[in-house]
Design a protein that fits this description.
The protein is mainly beta. The protein is built from 2 helices and 11 strands. The protein has a single domain, classed as Jelly Rolls (Sandwich), CATH 2.60.120. Strand 1 (about 35) and strand 2 (about 40-45) form a beta hairpin.
Amino acid sequence: MSLIHPSYPAPRYFGEKGEVTARFRPADSEPEFVSEPGGTAYHYLSTTQATDGEYGLYRVEMGPEAGGPSTHFHKAMSEAFFVLAGSVRLFDGERWITARSGDHLYVPVGGLHAFRNDSAEPASMLMLFAPGAPREEYFESISRLADLSDAERVEFCERHDSFFV
């Protein structure tokens, strides 16, 4: 590990006393979107709109053998995964890793990756995108990709910074 520490970014808040701006979301909040009855549930913890584009944080609850996206990369954002419960198969660009509670995978911009739940048990994880992007529309529309023409599918993926290989 490097002993060189980067400097802090330039200040962006110039008030003298701080403000009451924090947002709390109880753990038992209902998911904002469920892909289908009994499907993957998405909890929008901190959307890019809520963070002014700094990041997007989502809790994803996958049912048994829920699958996941094939290998892809992003040109505009990094992505990180933190497994909360169960086991999730994570692809780091070279190999598939069975990640369990507490395991983390960081994927820099341009990094090949994929994930899926192959197990017979449910799994949950946090997904972080930085900088933030409007992933909500992506999550809510991905199940309709099969209904799109090839050209529409390419446009959808490019609009959502998802490039499949």
